[in-house]
Structure formats: structure tokens, C-alpha cells
Amino acid sequence: MNINLTIIGQILAFIAFVAFCMRYVWPPILAAMEERQQKIANGLAAADRASHDLELAQKEAVDRLSEAKKEAASIVEAANKRAATVVDEAKVAAVAEANRVKELASAEVEREKAQAKEQLLTQVSTLAIAGAEKVLAAEIDADKHAALLERLVKEQ
Amino acid sequence: MAAAGQEQTVSDYIVHHLTNLTYGKLPEGFERYDGEAVAAGGQWTFAHGADEIAAMGFNAIHVDSLGWSIGLGIIFCALFRWVAVRASAETPSGLINFIEMIVEFIDNQVKDTFHGNNKLIAPLSLTIFVWVFLMNLMDLIPVDVVPELMMLVGVEYQKIVPSTDPNITMGMAIGVFVLMLFYSIKVKGFGFVKELTMNPFNHWAFIPVNLFMEVVGLLAKPFSLGLRLFGNMYAGEMIFILIAALFSAGIVWLVPAAFLQIGWAIFHILVITLQAFIFMVLTIVYLSMAHEDH
Q1: Residue in B59, B108, B202, B224 annotated catalytic
Q2: Which of A17, A71, A89, B128 is deepest in the core (most CB within 10 A)?
Q3: B222 interfaces chain A, CB cutoff of 8 Å
Q4: pLDDT digits (tens, 9 = 90+) for A110-147
Q5: Is the peptide bond before B200 cis (omega within 30 degrees of 0)?
């Protein structure tokens, strides 16, 4: 066992290597490892958040869907109701139209009836006058009695 | 394995394996192995044999231990720096993954034991763990390979496991010890003196007793740290050398020696990792104690 200058050399080498390690080796490696740890932690947190978000989105989608269904049902119902009212309205209008047409037609009938009656009366009176003419022959002047007959028609 | 033509005994073989390649200063007038006397003012040279190493005393450097130690330290720094430059928050792969695993392991160890806020402890622990592990790992290279290769290029001795050299292990232990003293004084201030003098008997009359016990306890820490690693690795290396010597004991011993070699090497994989880990953990514990203020 010889203790000699080697021990001094080893102490100096020891100091040098420790100093090198402390300055150029340890900090960058540890910094990289810590950074990676942080990154992984962030990644895991993001994944957690994403799955949570997904859950929320699914729930919202289900909500929206049921809402939409409800809305669709109400729209269909409203449409049905509307259709019913339209049909009712159309019915009422048709009935009214029919009544109006009927009234119009009956008025026309009335009017034509009156006209026909008037015509008939005129013809009857003409016929009566012609008969009376034939009966009375020359005694009766057509022109003289026309006004009289006219007045008679008017009184009818 | 010694010079050509000489019959080599097993003890020569073992001694040769346990001798460091030493570069040092021989004192004036010392008679060298070839009979020449060292000139006035001494001479810096590579030692040849145990006598010359002993004559050099403190003025010598174990070139092999220090060279391998620094070389492995550079490998550690280069490897980890390579990863540090490439490390990013992206998905890591291959080598980067492996290095980050080590770094995380060390970081957890430090966080478990050391509760203060000190930017030095973690990189210090990483350096100690990996560096000591690499130094111990040299133990798994078959004992003859590198020394024989070095002898081919004319290098006489080569001990490739730096942690079997007490200079290396104690050098690191002293480094840790200095840090312990520094942080004790920095964190506790006068409380450190009080800790040395008023423990375990809290009375002024016991100050000398306390001081003696505490100083012994304090000094025991770096010694236990450095000598534990040295002792374990030296013993392990010794057994590798003995097994290697067994190979030359005859053809009958070839198979048992091979099994012993494999078994001890596999067991040693555990030992070298464990010793590196213990050195690191004790460093953290000692420095953590230095930070604790009572």
C-alpha cells in the first residue's frame, strides 16, 4: 500500500469530473426528463378533458335529438290541425258558395218565372184581344183599346 | 511473464500483477536495478521493482491507476454529455433511455436520503456511482490480457483496476470528506464545533473526551468509505489472479479453474455494482449528516 502523489492526482480528477457533471451533464438531462414528465402529465390531463367533453357532447346530442323529435311531432300536429281547419274552411266556403249559387239560380228562376208570367199575360191579353177582336169585329178599335189593355196588364 | 529466460514462480506472477506502473523520483545515490547510482538531485523515472518504488516514497505517481481512472472518467463524461446534448422531451430511445434510467435512479436515491437543497449532491452521486462502477468493471477483464499486451509494447507493469489502488479510493474519499467539512461548517457554523465537543456528554468537563470520540468518528468516515471499496476490489482482484495462476498449475486444473473463473466473474458483477452503490449511498448519507442541524 503506497500512498503517493497519485492520491493528489485522483482528488484533482475527481473535482474536475464532478464539476463537469454538475455543469454539463446533470442539468440538461434532468431538465429534459422533467419537461417530458410535464408533457406527459399535460397529455393525460388533455385526454381526461377530452373524454369528459365527449361525454358532455354525447349528452347534448341526445338532448338535442329528443328536442328535435318533440319539435317535429308538434309541427306535424300543428300541420294536421291546420289541414283540418283548411278543410273545414273549405267546406264552409263551399257550402256558402253553393248557397249563393243556389240563391242566384232561384232568383233567376224567379225572375224568369215572372218574365214568363208577364209574357204569358201579354200573350193571353193579346190572345184575348184577338179573340175579342174577332168577337167584336169592327166595333172595337185595336188602337183605342190598347192603352186600356196595357193598364190592365199593369194592374195584374 | 517476467524477463525472458527466467523461471517464473507463482508468487512472482502475483507480485507482478499487484505492482503498479510507477513514475517517480529516485533519491540521490540510490543504486538502481542495473547497478547504476542515481545522479545528484535525484532522478524522475519509471520504477523497476518493489525496492525502487519504496525508495520513491511519496514522490511517485501510479501512472496506470491514474491513467485508467482519468480515462474512465473521460468516458463517463463523454457518454453522459453525448446524452445530455441529445436529451429532449421527445420519446427517448436506446442509449438515451438507459442513461436516463441511471440518472433517475440516482435522483431518487438522493431525494430519498438527502432532504436539503443542494445542487451538488446529485451530480456528485452520479459521478461517483458511474465512475466507480466503470473502475470496478475493469476487474472483469481477464487479469492477463492488458498487462501482457502492454508488455509487448515494452510497458513493464500494468494494473488496470484503479479501485484496487488505495490512492484512488482514498482520493475520492478525501474529496467527499472535504465536502463534509465544508458543508458542516457552512450549514452549522459554530454548531459544528459544539457538535464535536458537547456530544455525547453534554457537560464542559467532558469536552476532551467528547472531542476525541467525535473526531475519531468523523475521521473514520472517509477511511471506511475509501478502504471498504479498496478492500473489496483488492480482494476480488486477488482471487482473479489466484484463479489465473491456477491455470498454469497443469492440465488437470484447467476445467476447475475455468469454472471458478466464470463463477467468480458472475459473482463479481454483483460485487462491483454493489460497491459502487455503497460508495454513492454513503457519500449521500455523510453529506446529508453534514447538512443536519441539531
Answers
A1: B224
A2: B128
A3: no
A4: 998 998 888 888 888 888 888 877 877 766 666 777 77
A5: yes
Q: List pLDDT tens digits, range A19-52.
A: 999 999 999 999 999 999 999 999 999 999 999 9
* Residue B64 CA to its chain's centroid (Å): 13
Grid coordinates standing for B50? 518493489
Q: Would you state the cell numbers that stand for residue B254, as one nine-digit string?
A: 484447467
**The model's pTM:** 0.76
ipTM over 0.95 threshold: no
Per-residue pLDDT of B170-203, as tens digits, reads 999 999 999 999 999 998 888 888 888 887 888 8
Please state at what angle helix B166-188 crosses helix B121-137, rounded to 10 degrees.
170
Give contacts of B68 with chain A, Cβ < 8 Å: none
Local structure of residue B202 (DSSP, 8 states): -
User: B107: number of CA atoms within 13 Å, CB side?
Assistant: 14
Q: Output the CA–CA distances (angstroms, integers) from residue B256 to A55, B10, B105, B141, B267, in the order listed.
A: 70, 18, 38, 19, 16
Q: Which residue has the cell 475519531?
A: B216
